[in-house]
From TrEMBL:
Pfam families: PH_21 (PF23066). CDD domains: PH (cd00821). Gene3D superfamilies: Ribonuclease Inhibitor (3.80.10.10). SMART domains: PH (SM00233). It comes from Oryzias latipes. It is found in: Cytoplasm; Nucleus. This is C-Maf-inducing protein. InterPro entries: CMIP, LRR_dom_sf, PH_CMIP, PH_domain. Keywords: Cytoplasm, Leucine-rich repeat, Nucleus, Repeat. GO terms for cellular component: cytoplasm; nucleus. Residues 57-166 form the PH domain.
């Protein structure tokens, strides 16, 4: 009998792929303290099937069934006779342990267990029934007949897989000798790799079996652990490890961070997770494993240099990372690690179970640990020296500790002074310490040594991520909501490390990056507020704050709204920095005066005094006074009502023309087919009577539109035909309620922005949107 059924599927040849090199091979010199007796840690060769038919794993299906209760020695004679037994149609289900029918009658009255199945083969000789599979059981044979050869082979491979995986699950569920277990694991891995079935469970089922084996046998030696990890490595090349296996990998990273397995086996697994994982929320242990792997790299001799090489390997050698999921996943890992450093404090604050308690099933309030005190250090105020001693003879007293514990029944905090003199000012409670306030600058949180190392490691990773130009826009967007616990923002070490990241955002000329320094919504603080003088993270007397203001003022944020927010919230710091000669702050104060942001006369005089107190301020204030005199002359009634500039005119030509006389009556200005840009908006906003503006075929862009929308509220007709404006600038026109005619022909207007403008501009009657997306 030809048990191979003449099928080409049973003659599949296999070849061995070249052993892949460790992706972090250059780091090998960073862990030379590994034990030499641990044995080689080479990854097994991945057996890749040659080209051939592929099948989906069957879980159920319709098939013909025939049972022959005859000795197997007479089988061929029976099968070739014309008196073949009858066939019954059944809908069979391939469960994990048996083959059962949806209608348990006739031949399939009882399920067929895989454990009692002695043999499984194809029938393919001339007189045999077509497309049959033979299942041999004690005392008889079951024949399954499919509709065609493909279905027959699909049933054959599915039954074969179910039978073998059942056997391995049973064998590895009760291990006796670990040398035999390791051999069985290798055979299981080879079977999964060589199977012609294509299904997620083909690789996941062996991983689940092995993870269950490891979870139930925690007393294995370290060498056995490494041997098992090496054996299953080929299965992890294209599959994420299941949760229990992630827990085992985390334990190995914590206990043996210098093991060769971490570099040679875990590195490609973690790289695949970071490149392809879409949601850590569905499997948080993948994130935890990635976190422990990075901490294991940090334990090598190279330390953070090894981690830096790993981050670079994830980005790639080019200027653009080809994997869009790497950055969000790395940021998610960093945020989770940083939160874990303050987990006990956060749980004490909000009375929520920790991740560790959730994993351990500790959900009852009685099982919870008591709140962990938050250690805050505050310098002791100096004690006045005795009258008979000079001030130089005084000895600085050590800082005293404050133990802060949160009560579970209310939101108040009990503050106890552990050391220091009695009396004096009352100490701030925990909530006051963690809120953004100047008082928090004198406080610092003490973390355990291990948590402090974790915090330093992942804060440095955020710094590394900010060094990549292509990652910086997305990183700024991810960090814009300030996704850190309040305890971290009160930790001087963390905010000092994070300051580098914010500085990188402030130095980036791209608007999409530095605009993320502002709050994500009104009423919520952003990085701009946190690192401003008086903010929780400010430790440099406003140097970073000045850099942020400079970059924001140099972009589209040179607007009344931004200046108003500075005048309302940060006028004092701005004046102080201007008094110290900071040029950016001097420009800010001049603009506040020029745009009439400050209404209070006393405050205006104080700003003028501040400007006149420095050389750079005095010079800029004189220039402001000159501009104001020119503006007064420009806006004086008189001059033409209509004006057209010659073609090829520039911004400088327009400024020269408007400075030559009075244009208080100018209502219609045509700059069509000139070379003016958004810079000319500074001149256009000085025309108080302007009602019609023609910018056809100019280089006037979004930044200019934003400035016009704030100052030319009376504009009625605007022609933007063939200009480079986009939705980013056109959306600002919604504040110009007097617009009745708007030409956006041949611009980058979209349909959504057009609908928004129509809804917000009630007087808009004449609109031209030809040759746009909204047409």
């Amino acid at each position: 009998m030809d048990v191979n059924g003449g099928g080409e599927l049973h003659n599949n040849q296999f070849y061995q792929c070249e052993e892949s090199k460790p992706l972090l091979g250059e780091m090998s010199d960073g862990h030379n303290n590994a034990k030499p007796g641990a044995g080689p840690c080479k990854r097994p060769l991945h057996h890749c099937s040659s080209s051939g038919m592929r099948y989906k794993l069957l879980h159920e299906g319709d098939i013909q069934v025939c049972v022959l209760k005859h000795p197997r020695t007479f089988l061929s004679k029976i099968l070739t006779s014309k008196f073949l037994r009858r066939w019954e149609p059944h809908h069979l289900t391939l469960t994990d342990s048996c083959l059962s029918s949806a209608t348990p009658t006739g031949y399939m009255e009882t399920s067929l267990s895989y454990s009692s199945m002695e043999d499984l083969q194809l029938l393919s000789w001339d007189n045999a029934p077509k497309y049959c599979i033979q299942l041999s059981f004690p005392g008889g044979t079951v024949l399954l007949q499919a509709a065609n050869s493909y279905l027959r082979d699909q049933w054959f491979h599915s039954l074969q897989w179910k039978k073998k995986i059942y056997k391995y699950r049973k064998v590895l569920n009760n291990p006796s000798r670990w040398d035999v277990v390791l051999k069985e694991i290798r055979a299981l891995v080879d079977m999964a790799l060589s199977s012609p079935l294509q299904d997620e469970s083909i690789h996941q089922a062996p991983l689940h079996i092995i993870s269950t084996l490891l979870a139930e046998n925690s007393s294995l030696s370290a060498q056995d652990h490494e041997n098992i990890i090496v054996a299953i490595a080929p299965l992890l090349e294209n599959n994420h490890p299941p949760p229990d296996l992630c827990e085992f990998f985390c334990k190995h990273c914590r206990e043996r961070p210098r093991s060769m397995v971490v570099i040679e086996v875990f590195t490609p697994v973690v790289q695949r997770i970071l490149k392809h994982n879409m949601d850590f929320g569905k499997c948080p242990r993948l994130r935890l494993f990635t976190q422990e792997y990075i901490l294991a790299l940090n334990e090598l001799n190279g330390g953070m240099e090894v981690v830096k090489k790993f981050v670079h390997s994830m980005h790639g050698p080019t200027g653009h990372c080809p994997h869009p999921r790497v950055l969000p996943n790395l940021v998610a890992v960093c945020l989770a690690a940083i939160y874990s450093c303050y987990e006990e404090f956060i749980n004490s604050r909000d009375n929520s179970p920790s991740l560790k308690e959730i994993r351990n099933g500790c959900q009852q309030l009685n099982d919870r640990k008591p709140p962990m005190p938050l250690r805050l250090l505050r310098p002791e105020p100096p004690t006045p020296p005795p009258a008979n001693l000079l001030p130089l003879a005084t000895t600085p007293s050590p800082p005293h500790e404050i133990l802060v514990e949160l009560e579970r029944n209310n939101n108040s905090a009990n503050v106890k002074k552990k050391a220091g003199p009695a009396g004096g000012d009352s100490e701030p409670n925990l909530i006051d310490c963690l809120l953004v306030s100047p008082a928090v600058n004198t406080l610092s949180i003490q973390l355990p040594a291990q948590a402090d190392r974790v915090l330093g490691c992942f804060a440095l990773i955020l710094k590394m991520l900010s060094d990549y130009d292509d990652w910086r826009p997305a990183l700024a967007s991810l960090l814009q909501p300030i996704p850190f616990p309040k305890e971290a923002l009160a930790h001087a070490k963390f905010t000092k490390e994070l300051k580098y990241v914010i500085q990188r955002f402030a130095e980036d000329p791209r608007q999409e990056v530095h605009s993320c320094l502002l709050s994500v919504r009104s009423g919520k603080d952003g990085w701009f507020q946190l690192y401003s003088p008086g903010g929780v993270a400010c430790d440099d007397d406003g140097e970073l704050f000045a850099s942020m203001v400079h970059i924001l003022m140099g972009s589209c944020y040179k607007t009344k709204k931004f200046l108003l927010s500075l005048a309302e919230n940060k006028l004092g710091p701005c004046m102080l920095l201007a008094l110290r000669g900071n040029q950016t702050m001097v420009e800010i104060l001049c603009l506040m005066l020029e745009y009439n942001i400050i209404e209070n006369k006393d405050t205006q005089l104080q700003i003028i005094s501040t400007l006149e107190s420095t050389q750079v301020g005095f010079r800029m204030y004189e220039q402001l006074c000159d501009r104001q005199r020119e503006l007064k002359e420009l806006q004086r009634k008189g001059g033409p009502t209509r004006l057209t500039l010659p073609s090829k005119s520039t911004d400088a030509d327009l400024a020269r023309l408007l400075s030559s006389g009075s244009f208080g009556n100018l209502e219609n200005l045509s700059l069509a087919f000139t070379n003016v840009t958004s810079a000319c908006a500074e001149q256009l906003i000085k025309l108080p009577s302007l009602k019609q503006l023609n910018l056809w075929s100019t280089q006037f862009g979004d930044a200019g539109l934003r400035l016009l929308s704030e100052h030319l509220a009376c504009l009625q007709v605007l022609n933007l035909c063939e200009t480079p404006v986009t939705d980013a600038g056109l959306v600002a026109l919604s504040s110009m309620k007097s617009l009745c005619s708007l030409n956006m022909n041949s611009t980058k207007l979209t349909a959504d922005t057009y609908e928004d403008l129509k809804a917000k501009l009630p007087n808009l009657k004449d609109v031209d949107v030809r040759y746009t997306e909204a047409w």
